[in-house]
Batch of 2 targets.
Target 1
Amino acid sequence: MVAPLRVGIAGLGTVGAEVVRLIESRASALASRCGRPVRVIAVTARTKAKKRSLDLRGIAWAKDPHQLAENPDVDCLVELIGGAGEPALSAIETALKAGKSVVTANKALIAKHGLRLAKAAEAHGATLNFEAAVGAAIPIVKTLREGLAGTSINRVYGILNGTCNYILTRMEKEGLSFDECLKDAQRLGYAEADPSFDVDGHDTAQKLAILSSLAFGTKVAENAIYVEGISSITPEDLRAASDLGYRVKLLGVAVRTAKGIEQRVHPTMVPKSSSIAQVMDVTNAVTVDGEGIPPMTLVGPGAGGAATASAVVADIADVARGVRVSPFGRPVEQLRATEKAPMERHEGGYYIRLMARDFPGTAAAIATRLAEQKISLESIVQRHPNGVDLARSGGKASQVPVILITYATHEDAVYRALKAVQRDKVISGRPQVIRIEKN
Ligand code: NDP
Ligand code: HSE
C-alpha cells in the first residue's frame, strides 16, 4: 500500500469547507488518479467552536496555522485563509522551509509575496501551487505555466473577477442597484472578505500580476498595473452602453509592447457581439494571444466554493503524484523586472458621459475642444431623461447628459480636451470616461 498524502487545511470558510468535502467525496477517484490516497488529517480556522456543516470526526484540530504547518504528520499545507499578510504568509513559509508542499488560493498573498515564497520553495525542494488563485475553476495557471511553455505570448486578457461580472450583469439585466448586487455576491460566497478588493479592481490586478509573470517571464509586480474599479459605473452608463451596442466589463489586460508589458485593469466597453460580452454572471474568461496560434479563450466559473475547490484539489492531486514545477514556470532568478506602462499613451476609442448645461452652443463648445486635440467623434447623443425636455426649469439652466463615442485616440488627448471643456464651464461634475476595446 502506497503511503497517503497527508493534508492539513488552514481555513474552513467558503473554499476550505468545499475542499474538505471534495476530498472526502472523491476519495477513491483521487486515489486511483494519484496512485495513492489523499487524506485530510488536520485542519484549523479562526474559531474552533463555530458551527460548520462538516464532518470533522477523526481530523485533528491545530490551534493555529503555524502549528498546522509545523505538524510533522502533515505533508501538504493547504492555505485557504486569505489576506496578503499574517497568518497565511508565515504558515506557508514555515511549511516550505520544512520541505512540505503548499497549495493556496490566495492571490493577494501570491501577488505580494509570490517571489519570496517561490524562492523558499526552490531552496527547499518544495512545491508551491496556486491554480485557484486566478479564475477559480479555470486551469489558466497550468495552461500558461505548462501547456504554453513552448509559445511566445503577446497578450493575456479577460474577465478575472466573478463578483464584478456578477454585479455588472445583474445591474444591466435586472436594473438592480450596485449595492443590492454586491450583497448577493457576498451571500453567494463570491466576494472577498473585504469586497472593496473586488469592486476597486485590486483582486483583478492581483490575478493579472500573476498571469503576466507566467505569460511573459516577468517578476510579479502588482504595483506596475494601472487599476480602476467599477464603483463609478452607473445604471445610466450601462443603459447608454447598451443603446450604443456595447456592454461594460471589468477587464484585466497585459500586453507586450515595444516599451515593455502594458498592464491595466479598468471597466471597458466591449461590442455586444464580441465573445467577451457574452461572459455573464460569475463566469470568468481568459484569452491568450500567442505567436503562431489563434487566440484561445478559457471560460468557466470564476468564484464560489465548489468552483474554487475544484482547482485546489487538482493542485493537491499534483502534489500527491509528485509533480513539481517552478511556481512561476521558471526559476525566480530568471524572471525579469517590469515597469509601469504610462496610461497617457494608451490608444483606443473612448466613451465619455458629460452633464452638459443645456445652453445653445454647449455641444459646439465640446466638439471644438475635442477637435483641438484631433479627436474624431463616432457619435454624440444628447439624452433627455425619460424623454422630458429639461432645457429650462424655474428660469435656471438645467443639465442634460451628453454621451460621446470617440474614434481611436490617445488618453492624454482625451483628458486635455475634457479639462478645457471644464474650464469653459459648459459642463458640471466629473466627466465619466470608459475605454472601448473592440477586439
Ligand atoms: P472565507 O472568509 O469564507 O474563509 C476564511 C477562513 O479562514 C475561515 O474558515 C476563517 O475561520 C479562517 N481564518 C480567518 N482568519 C484566520 C486566522 N487568523 N487563523 C486561522 N484561520 C483563519 O474565505 P474564502 O473561503 O472565500 O477564501 C479563502 C481564500 O480563497 C482567499 O485567499 C480567497 O481570496 C481565495 N479565493 C476565494 C474564492 C471564492 O470564491 N470565495 C475564489 C478563489 C480564491 P472561521 O471559519 O473560524 O471564521
Ligand atoms: N472575489 C473573487 C472574485 C473570488 O469575485 O472573483 C475569486 O477569486
Target 2
Amino acid sequence: METMCGIAGYVGPRSAVQVVYDQLKRLEYRGYDSAGIAFLESGAIKVFKRAGKLGELGKLLGEFPDDTHMAIAHSRWATHGAPTDVNAHPHFDQFEQVAIIHNGIIENYLELKEELVHNGHTFQSETDTEVAAHIIGEEYARGVPLEEAVRRAARRLRGAYALVVVSRTERNKIVCARNASPLVIGLGEEENLLASDIPALLPYTRQVLVLEDDRIAILTPDEVVVTDLHGIEQPYVPMQVDWDIAAAEKSGYDHFMLKEIHEQPEVIRQCLAGRLDDANNVRLDNVFSEHVWGEIDRVNFIACGTSYHAGLMGKYLFETLLRIPADVFYSSEFRYGDPVLSPKSLAIFISQSGETADSLAALRLCKQRRIRTLGIVNVIGSSIARECDRVIITQAGPEISVASTKAYTAQVISLVLLALHVAQVQEMPGVRVEEVVSQLKRLPGLAEKALELEPQVQELAKKAAEAKLFFFLGRGVDAYVALEGALKLKEIAYVATQESPAGEMKHGPLALVEPGVFALFGATDAALRDKLVSNMKEIQARGGLAVSVTTEEDQITDKAADFTLKLPRVNQNYLCALLSIIPLQLLAYHLASLKGLEIDQPRNLAKSVTVE
Ligand code: M6R
C-alpha cells in the first residue's frame, strides 16, 4: 500500500532505462525509501530493486542495456510494509509474465490474496501490489491481451490505484489503469510516457493527458488509446502544459505549503483508506490487543510543535469520548521533568518526521521505564516509527514545507480513529462509533468546502496585512486549534501572536489590545458561542477587530464579529474544529505571501529538528 510513490514509464526509440531513471529523479521531491525498474531483455522481464535512496538503484544503471525501448520504474514512499528490496516495486505475477508498479491502496487485497493462496499462489512480499500482479497474471495466462487482463483485474479491485503493467511478450506496450491515484500520460513524437506527476514528463513533451478514474490507457510508441473498464474506446483531448519545471513540482502551486494545504481532502481520504468498513466500523491493525486497552489507566501524549497541538486533540478525545485520563507533554519538558509514570500508562508519541530528537529521547526514557509506547508517525521506517512498541502511520504522504499542515490533519484523524478503535474493542456503548465514522466519511468533501473559503481569507489577509499583533482565541477544543493557527502565522509570516483560551484574556493578555490588533476566534463549538461574544466585545471596545471562524448555522458570533469565515457543519465538535485549521493555515500563507516571504523555508527553522 503506497500512497505517494513516484511512477514512470517510457516506450519509444530512446534508451528506456535512462528515461525512466531520469523521470524518477524528477519525482524525488515526493519522497522515497526504495526504488525499482523493469525492462525487457532477451525475451524476459528483468526487475531490479533497491531499498534506500534512488542513487542505490542508480549505481546499477551502467549494467542495464542501453538498447531497451520500454521500461517502467517506481520510487516507493512506504506506508505499509518496511522499505526493503523485497517490498519495493515492480512486482511479478506468479509466472513472471507480467510486472507491475502501483501507487495507492487496494482495499480488498486480503480477500483477493486468500482466494489466490487457495488456488496455489505463493507471494514474495507483504504488498497489496503483488496481489494485483497475480490477478493480472492469471488473466494474462488465459491468453487475453494485456489490456484486457488489466481491465478484468481492475473490475475486481477496490480502493485507490494507479497501476502500470508490462508483459514479457508484448514488447512495445505499456498498459496503465487509474482509480483515484494520480497518473498522467505524456504524448510525444513516436514515443509515449507516463508518470505520477507532470514534472517527470516535461523534458520529453508538453502534451499531457490526465487519465480519468476507471480508465485504462494502452501506450505504444505510435499511439495512446484510452478505454473504459469494458474496453469501449474513450476520446480525449490532451492539454498543453506551459509550466516551468520548478512550478510543475508544486503541481502549479507557488509553494509546497499551499499545495499541501490543498491536499488535505485527499490526505483525509488516504488516512481513512482501508481503516473503515462498509458497516461503519474502524479497523486499525497493529495497535495493542483488547486486554491491553482494558489495563491502561492513563495516556500521555508526547510531542513537539504542531504534533504537540495534535496531542492536545488526543487528550480531548481520550478524556471526553473514552473517559481515560490523559496528559500532553512537550517532549523537551517531559525528558527533564522527572515524570511520574504509572506502569499501566501508555505513552503516545506524535511526530511527522519520526526523527525529532527530543521526542526520540522521551521515547527512550519511556522504554527504559518499561512504559508501553505507541507512535503516530508519518514517515515509515523513521526512528520513532521503529522504536515504538506499536505504530500508526498517518499516510499523509511526504510533507515538504517546513510549516506542517497536512500532517497535522492526518495526525488528528489518526487520533480519532484510535479513540474509536478503543471504544469499539472495549465495547463502550456511550461512543457512537458508527455515527462518527459516517461523519468521517463526509470529511474529505467538507474539507474541500473549507478550501473554498480561500478568496475570503485572501481578502482578510489584505485587511490584516499591516497588523502587528494577532490574537488566536477559542474555548474548549477550538482553543487547541487556535494554538496551531498561531504557530502557523508566527512561523511563516513572522508576526507576533498571543494565543490562549478566550476566558484567559481578562487575566492579563487583554492589556495588549489596542487599535489595529486582529483577534481570530475559533467558534465552531455551538455550546460556547455566547461566551465568545463577550470576549469579542472586550476586544472591539479597545479598538481591536474580531474575526469569527465558525460553522454555517452560527448566528451568534456571526452578528458580533467584524469578519466571519463559515465552515460546513459536521456533528462532532472536534471534527468541526479540525476543519477550522484550514482557513487559519490559508491566512498564514496569504499574509506571508503578501509580505513576499520565503514560506516553504522560513528563517531559522528546519523541517526535522534532530538536535536537542
Ligand atoms: O516531525 P515532528 O512532527 O516531530 O516535528 C515537530 C515540530 O518540529 C514541527 O511540528 C514544527 O513545529 C513545525 N515546523 C510546525 O509547523
